[in-house]
Design brief:
It contains 18 helices and 27 strands. By secondary structure, the protein is of the alpha/beta class. Strand 8 and strand 9 form a beta hairpin. The termini are far apart. Bound molecules: alpha-D-glucose-1-phosphate-6-vanadate (VG1) and cobalt (II) ion (CO). The site of alpha-D-glucose-1-phosphate-6-vanadate has 18 residues, from loops.
């Protein structure tokens, strides 16, 4: 095999965001763009002899082209082997599992998750470390630093490898192993959940609908729900993977998963609905005419975890991202286990899980997971719910409502303003921060501000500090408003407003979160002037 050293020049915009580097496909198609980033990854890790790299992606446009380039660069940079999902496909949680199962020196995951796919849409790439989790900031910063000074990259010049056929091929001491992307992951799920109980449930008159949103989870859902758990084929919606994700936006929320929402809200026939995002790490859970907020989902799973075989011994602790509601905190108090609060993004949970401090983690953005892998895991969350329903023999709505009765309810909503011009979004954040000293003790209707700050986090395991992780306005009664700029968008800025009010007495409150939070929504505008400054009416997405 001949290795070529190619001269290149840095691109200055390769800073990984919340979940890796995301740009338009056209940006990735520029000569050397992908190669520069991949070389910067390889230069930031120590590639020891005889190590393998896991490789796969969410199947979006440009996935297979990028896979071929990365295989050739892995060969040139000293990897002994690349383990790649058939046709280049691996969901994010499956990739995390493969890294751990085959002990590879981490993996490269090609995904822009929920961002739309296609020639004029988005592509993404991230490196996960040998524990299976997203690279911590120390590594993503090293990658960014290398990308700014890169002058050459190395690539082998063999022809494209056939990744559509399962098997292993050798190329001068370098191997490419093409694996089935689903089997190992499905086996892991079967080892964790009570499949016989779920099978009985799915073969009764209980009706499930799963929406793959034309993205990577289709084949996984088919294997789990239809082949292994005996649900009828027609429980699957949009489960054929397409390079453009069917022209849709695979974000599992009430706005983008409207087909599933229609199926659950238009008839009484369907008992349980779930959807996954582009790369399969997130999930939305619905009961019949009932939406489970992701923060409540985490709390309900934590409260009922011992009904699931994998957690029957109990949980060592739980963690949630800062903007996620405090519902799980209340469960942790009752279970007498620690609850950690981290910045947004799964990379902050890895150290806690590796140190055995937490078993379950979650984010308000429809991400839930546990220490079985080091990524959030959409289908895992769906199986948690099915296992809990099978054991409790109650509907989704009854399970959540009895949870509120026991713990109180953290009424919660997130408002996203997408594609706001960056200068306006920045001015909004600056305006809020300029009030940090004047806000405390200020009265807004019945609410008094307690503190206002910019969240920063010190990792309890390695002491690393992450600053600027979102602006928090905390009220004396435990209610909160959080403002954050998204780190995953590729057009303008997305401003996220997270609203939370605690209601101890469930009998008192409005079921509709928007009604219950109406006053908080007004206060958020008063403090931020977001609508005024951006001349926007309603948010783009409300969840
Ligand atoms: C969003 C979510 C965050 C999540 C991230 C990656 O980030 O808010 O909670 O971890 O997406 O999820 P941001 O920076 O846009 O708010 V995924 O499914 O794209 O891997
Ligand atoms: Co995702």
């Amino acid at each position: 095999m001949t290795i070529q050293t190619i001269r290149t020049q840095p691109f200055l915009d390769q800073k990984p965001g919340t979940s890796g580097l995301r740009k338009k496909v056209t940006v990735f198609q520029q000569p050397h763009y992908l190669e520069n980033f991949v070389q910067s990854i390889f230069d930031s890790i120590e590639i020891t002899p005889n190590t393998a790299l896991t490789l796969g992606g969410d199947g979006r446009y440009y996935n297979s082209t990028a896979i071929q380039t990365i295989i050739k660069m892995a060969a040139a940079n000293g990897f002994a082997k690349v383990i790649v999902g058939q046709s280049g496909v691996l969901s994010t949680p499956a990739a995390s599992h493969i890294i751990r199962q085959y002990n590879t020196l981490g993996g490269i995951i090609l995904s822009a998750s929920h961002n739309p796919a296609g020639p004029t849409e988005d592509f993404g790439i991230k490196y996960n470390t040998p524990n299976g989790g997203p690279a911590p900031e120390k590594i993503t910063e090293a990658i960014f630093a290398k990308s700014k000074v890169i002058s050459t990259y190395k690539i082998a010049d063999f022809s494209d490898v056939n990744i559509d056929i399962i098997g292993e091929m050798q190329l001068d001491g370098f191997a490419v192993q093409v694996i089935d992307p689903v089997t190992d992951y499905a086996d892991l799920m079967a080892s964790m959940f009570d499949f016989s109980a779920i099978k009985l449930l799915l073969q009764s008159d209980f009706k499930l609908k799963f929406d793959g949103m034309h993205a990577v989870t289709g084949p996984y859902a088919k294997e789990l729900f239809v082949n292994r758990l005996g649900a009828p084929q027609n429980c699957l919606m949009n489960c054929e993977v397409s390079e453009t994700f069917g022209g849709g936006h695979p974000d599992p929320n009430l706005t983008y998963a409207h087909e599933l929402v229609a199926a659950l809200y238009s008839t009484k026939d369907v008992d349980f609905g779930a959807a996954s995002d582009g790369d399969g790490d997130r999930n939305m859970i619905l009961g019949n005419r009932f939406f489970v907020t992701p923060s409540d989902s985490l709390a309900v799973i934590a409260a009922n975890a011992t009904l699931i075989p994998a957690y029957k011994q109990g949980l060592s602790g739980v963690a949630r991202s800062m903007p996620t509601s405090g519902a799980v905190d209340r469960v942790a108090i009752k279970l007498n286990i620690p609850c950690y609060e981290t910045p947004t993004g799964w990379k902050f949970f890895g150290n806690l899980m590796d140190a055995g401090k937490v078993t379950l983690c979650g984010e308000e953005s429809f991400g839930t997971g546990s220490n079985h892998v080091r990524e959030k895991d959409g289908l895992w969350a769906v199986l948690c719910w099915l296992n809990i329903i099978a054991a409790k023999k109650q509907s989704v709505e009854d399970i959540v409502k009895s949870h509120w009765l026991e713990y109180g309810r953290n009424v919660y909503s997130r408002h996203d303003y997408e594609a706001v011009p960056s200068d306006i979004a920045n001015s909004v954040m600056t305006h809020i921060k300029s009030q940090f000293t004047s806000l405390p003790n200020q009265k807004f209707g019945k609410y008094y501000v307690k503190t206002a700050d910019d969240f920063s986090y010190t990792d309890p395991i390695d002491g690393s500090i992450s600053t600027g992780q979102g602006v928090r306005i905390l009220f004396t009664d435990g209610s909160r408003i959080v403002f954050r700029l998204s780190g995953t968008g590729t057009e303008g800025a997305t401003v996220r407003i997270y609203l939370e009010a605690f209601e101890p007495n469930v009998a008192n409150h409005h079921c509709d979160a928007q009604v219950a939070l109406a006053e908080m929504i007004e206060i958020a505008e008063e403090i931020s002037q977001l609508k005024q400054r951006s001349a926007r009416g309603l948010p783009t997405v409300i969840t």
